[in-house]
Amino acid sequence: MLGQQDVGHRIVVRRMVGERDGRPLxxxxxxxxxxxxxxxxxxxxxxxxxxxxxxxxxxxxRVPPTRRPxxxxxxxxxxxxxxxxxxxxxxxxxxWLLRAADxxxxxxxxxxxxxxxxxxxxxxxxxxxxxxxxxxxxxxxNTPLPLAAPVGAELDARGWSAxxxxxxxxxPLPLAAxxxxxxxxxxxxxxxxAAAPTREWLAVASGRKGGLPDAARHVLTAVDQVRFxxxxxxxxxxxxxxxxxxxxxxxxxxxxxxxxxxxxxxxLARRMIRALAxxxxxxxxTHAFLQVEQHNTxxxxxxxxxGFTTHHTYRTRVAPR
Length: 321
Fold this sequence. Notes:
The protein is of the alpha+beta class and 321 residues long. It has 7 helices and 16 strands. The protein has 3 domains: 4-62, SH3 type barrels; 71-162, no CATH class; 170-316, 3-Layer(aba) Sandwich (Aminopeptidase), CATH 3.40.630.30. 38% of the residues are buried. Keywords: Transferase. It comes from Micromonospora globbae.
């Protein structure tokens, strides 16, 4: 029987998918277990996310990983991602990072428990709760899995809730071809990169993220190597994206890839990603990473076509009010 200790590991699931001549029919699925609840489990498979009701599971077991990243590799990528999304208020608890940005985004307002907090785990969580209370914020912790599984178990015992799983995906540069279509006939869409976002770019980001306080502007711009993708159609901004190079120059981070509804399904997201990937490679980056919620199946499929695979997962844990 699967348990929370299996989240973040590769498993094979045999599920009942029907019946023929009075006999059950089964189908097997292999993938990374990213969610396990009382009613269902969710796998990140090569074909995309798969949600399986628990009453359909005939049997399931963990299988040895083929290329699971080492703990050091997870820490390296998590620190590169932190550098790419820098909270203006920061502190340390041993090696753990404490971050605050006036409540703007979970990543910039959560503790990152990598390394040693220099105290027993229960005392470390107590200190996290006090720090965020002192900044008038609900305590949150990002738990990279399976690296931070012990932290997750401690938070479970305290009744912390969990937000949906996030896939941390990576791809080597240059990116795969991805089946990117040519621009539609007569399309005047162009993609431009800039060292700073325009007012229109910020307006689109504000609509997606629910406002942009001063702390948000710091998160977006306080990176030495950063570019902002602007996609225009007939002179009107219809898409945005952001790229950073961090982690000692190795990692291109992609974030805030957004195309306005009227301009979707024209390949603009791929074009912005490719423009940022070309810039990152020219700056010396050898790999790209991004973070995408596991249930965002459209984005997961797009990134898969570009060569991205899941490096590890994380969940944002939220303290009880």
